[in-house]
Design goal:
The chain has four helices and five strands, in the order βαββαβαβα. The protein is of the alpha+beta class. It has one domain: 2-Layer Sandwich (GMP Synthetase, Chain A, domain 3), CATH 3.30.300.
Length: 132
Amino acid sequence: MAPDQQLRITPPGRPLGDEVEKKLSEGLEACPDLAFAHLVDVEVLEQGEGPAMVLFVWLDPVAMRSMRPALNLVSETVAKALPGDRFLDVVILNSAPELLSDVERARCLFVEPHPDERKRALAATSENIGAD
C-alpha cells in the first residue's frame, strides 16, 4: 500500500460470532509476544473494494528483533480459530506505528495481554506525531 492512500478504519461490519471471537481472543491472549491487538475493518478508499477485516497486532519490542516466531504463532492462532470460509489479514502495527492512533480511534481493542506495553506504545507514537 502506498503511503498516500487513504484508509478508513472502522469496527467490523461482519462480526466473527461469539464462539469464534472467544476462541480467537483466548488463543491470542496465550501468545507470549503479543502485547495487544485490534480487530477492525479497513477500507482503502482509492480501491473501492469495500472493507476487509484486519487484525492489527503490536508485538513486544524484544520480539521485533526476530519477529518470525511471534508472527507465525499469531498466524497459526488466527487460522485455528477461524472457520474455513472466513479470513483476516494480520498486520504488525509496530511496523506502521503512524496508524496506531487511527486504529485506536475505531475503539476495537480485541485483546490486551500487556497493558503497560500498550500505554508505552501510545505515549511513544503521540510523542512522534507531535514532533512532526
